[in-house]
Amino acid sequence: MMPIVIPLVVAFMMAQNIIQNPDGALAFWFSIIPFTSPIIMMVRIPFGVPTHELILSGVILIATFIFTTWLAGRIYRVGILVYGKKVGYKDLFKWLFYNN
User: Fold this and answer.
1) Could you tell me the residue range of the domain that residue 89 belongs to?
2) pTM value?
3) How far apart are CA 45 and CA 95, in angstroms?
């Protein structure tokens, strides 16, 4: 649970700095990173965000969602067959490129 919560906590901590300078480089880059962009964009929108930054952030967020869903599907498809076996990173990497 901790690796999932860390980007959210970082985004909330950075929100204070971004409120002070919503057009700075820190605000821009945290708006683009998919794990922090939903929170940071909600902080930046009241101060006015250029449309191209909003679209870029949304496209990157959606593309990351699609990619991670595809990746999880590839791993799950093979991983469901090895019930009870201890799985390492080497096995996960092999499963990504496994062809049926």
Assistant:
1) 2-96
2) 0.77
3) 41
Structural contact between residues 11 and 30, judged by C-beta atoms closer than 8 angstroms: yes
Q: In angstroms, rounded to a whole number, what is the distance separating the alpha carbons of residues 71 and 40? A: 26
Tokens of 14: 């950075």
Six-digit token string for 51: 């449309």
In whole angstroms, give the CA distance from residue 82 to residue 90: 14
Query: Is pLDDT larger for residue 96 or for residue 25?
Result: 25
Domain count, the chain: 1
Q: What CA–CA distance (Å, rounded) separates 11 from 61?
A: 15
Distance CA 83, CA 17 (A): 47
